[in-house]
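Hi R.,

Here's the chain you asked about this morning:
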Amino acid sequence: MSAAGFQVRTVTEWAATTTPTRDLRDSTTQSLAVHLDTMGATAVAPELIEAIAALLHGGHSTDGYGVIRVVFGPDDCGQTETIALIATLLDQQSHTISLVVTPQDADGLAKQLQNWLPEARHRIVALGYSEITEHAVIWVVNAQLLSDHLLPKLKDSPNSIARVGLVVWWRLHDYSGVMAANLWAITRRLHRLLRVYGRDDLRTLVLLHTAVADAQKGDFVRRLLPHAELKDPKTRTYIELYHPQRLSLHIVQAKSPQAPPHQYLLLSAAAVSVAGHWPTAINLPDFITADEFGQFCGQTAYAGTIGEQLLPNADQAAVRLVHIRPADVLALANLLGQGRRVAGGINHYHIAIMPPANPYVAYLLESLANTQYFTTSRRLICAKSCPAIIKRHLLLGLNELPDTRDGLLQNALWEREMVDETLSLLANQDKLSRMEVRYLDDNNRLALDFEYRSRDAPDDQYSPLDTIGLKLINVRERAGGGKEVGIRLRVDPERLLMMAYPGRIFMDQGQRYRINEWSALDAVEKSGELECRQEGQSRATWRCYTSLLYDLKPLSGSSEVAIGKQGRLLRLAVSLVYQEEVTGRIEWTCDPCQYWLDKPQRSYISAIANRPFKTRAIILRLMAPPSDTNALPSLCQALCHVLPVHLGVEEDALAVVSLNGENTINGEEVFGIAMVDLYPGGIGVVEAVSDDDALWLHILQSTCAWLENCPVETLQNHPIAFAAGTDRPPYPLAALKVLRQIL
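And here is the predicted structure, written out as C-alpha cells:
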C-alpha cells in the first residue's frame, strides 16, 4: 500500500480470541450441525444452532402468532447458512416457503442465500413488482415492497399465505426511526393475514446486532413485533462476540492528490489490494453508482478483472475495505469481528477504513487505540404514535382484511384514543364503511362493535418507509422530455424543503440524480411533482437553512427535570410549530477521502419557506444565558455531527436549534437547545428518549471530549456544520465553555 502511494495508519489491533466451545449434546442440534458441515458452513455460532433447533421444535405459541426466536449476534456468525438450512428442512417436511424480509437489497441477500443452496438456486427468489413465484423455497423481499406489493397480493391468495412456514426479519436494527414507525404497522398487517389464513405451526426468526441488546433491553424488538411471547427470556439468544483471527484496524489515506488512480479512494485501495494477491472484499458505499462500480470491476489486475477477484462475502477475505457510516460506528465490533474463516492459510485479518466524512466519527475511531470496544451503543428508536402513519396503515390493513375496532386494538396495539380518532376521521371522509356486529366477549357476554372495511383501493404508487403521509410529492426523471419516466424520489409535502430542495443530489437504485432548480412552493404543491436529471459528478449536497420555532408548550404530563452539574441544565419535552427557510445549498465531493478535489462550495437561492407544521421537541434549557452569543449555535452545529452516531434516526429527521431567548415557555424566556422531530406530528422520537437523562448526559459528555480534541478548522470547514450554521461558522471553544459549566 505504501509503495502504491497510500498511507496506512494502524488504529488498533485485537488479538485472536478462542472460539467458544459449546457442546451440542442434544441430538437435534447435533443433526443440524452435521447438515451445516455438509453444506460447507464452518464456524457457525453454536448458540445460533441451538436457537434454530428451538425454533424448529419449540411447540406452539400461546398468542396465535407462532413460535418466535430473537437472535442478538454479530454479523457473519452463520445467519445466512442457517436460514438456508432451516428453509430447506421446512420445505422437505411440509413444502412451506420461508419469507425473509430485509431493510434493503433483497437481490444481494438472495445471492448470499443461493451460495449455500446451489441446487435450489432457482427457487430462492428476490421478489419484485411482478407475480409471486409459487415454486420458491425462499422469498426475499424488502420491507417497502412487502407493504406496497406483497401484502395486497397475498390478501387475494390465501393458498400462498398458507404456504409461509417461516418469517425471518433480517437486520432488524436497521429499521430505527421513521422506518421502525412504518415497520411497526407492517409487521402487524402481515401477521393479521398469517393469523387468519396462515399455518398453526408458523415460525418467526429475528436477527439483529448484539450491541442492541444492552442499550434496548428488548424494548425495541417487543414494540416492533406483535408477539406476546417476546416477554419470555427463553425466546432470546445472545451470541458471544469473538474473532478467531488476529485483527488489525487501519485508516487508509492517499499520500498525495496524484496517488489514487481511481475516482474513489476505496476503489483505488481495493485495486492495489487485489494486485497484491490479497483475498479482498469491499463494502460499497451508497455514493458510488452501479455504473461507476461496474467500470471499476471491468478493469484488469493481477490474473484477470478486478470484479472476478473481489470476494462477494467478507467471511472469506483477508482484507476488507469499508466506509463507516455514522449509524454503524458504535456497532463496529459487531460488523467486523465475528466468524472469519481462515482464507488461504492467512490468520491475520485486516480492516481498512477510509477516512470518515464525519469528524466526530474520526475521533471515535482514534479512541479505539485506548479501549477494546466502544462501551456504548446506538439508541434505536421504535415509535408508534405518529397519526399520519396510523392513518396510512389502517387504510392498507383494512383493505387487506376487515376488522372491528377491538380487533384492531388487539392486533395492532395502537393506542385506543388514536385508533378511535383515526377511524372516525376516515369514516367521515367516506374512506371506510362500517357494519354493526355482535359477538360473545371473553366473559361470554353479548358485545357490540363495528366491523370496518376500506372503501378505497390503496394508491398503487409506492410509499417509501422514510415518509409518513398518504399524499406524497413525486420527483421524476423526464428522459428526453417525454411523459413515460420513472419516479426517483417521493417526499412528504411538509418535508419538501428537507428532502427535495433545489439542486439536491440523491441516489436511487444505484444511480445519482440532481433535482432541478425550483422556487415556487405553491406551484410544486399544486402539481405534486418536481423534476430531476441524472448527475454524472460525484458530489454531495447539504441544504443551508434557518429554523423558526413557535408556540412552545410542555407536553401533557411533562415537567422540567434538572440534570447535569448541580442541576444547571433543565430537560423538557414540548410541542411546537416548526418552520424552515432554505437559503441555498453546499456542495462537496462525494468522496471525503479525497478532500483536495475541491472545497465546500455554497450556492445561494431566493429564500423558500416550508409550510409550518406541528411537531415535538426535547429542550435542554440553561438556567442562565451564556455570556458568548456564539456558544449555543456552535453547540448545535457540533451536535449535528454527534446525534446521528448516538440516536437511531436519520440525519434529516432531527433539527438541532439554538434557543436564544426569542421563545418563551409559560411566559419565561428560554436559552438552550432544542432537538426537533422533523416529521409532522412527530414519529415518537421525543417520547422514546426524552426522559433518558443518562443518554443525554452521555451525549453531551462525548461532545465535550470530542471538542477538546477537535482542531477549530476541522469543524469550521466541514459542510455539515457550515450548512446548519447559515453564515455563522462554529466556535468550538465557546461551545466547550457551556458544556464544562453544565457537566
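One quick note: The chain has four domains: 6-15+243-358, 27-238, 387-454, 540-742.

Cheers,
M.
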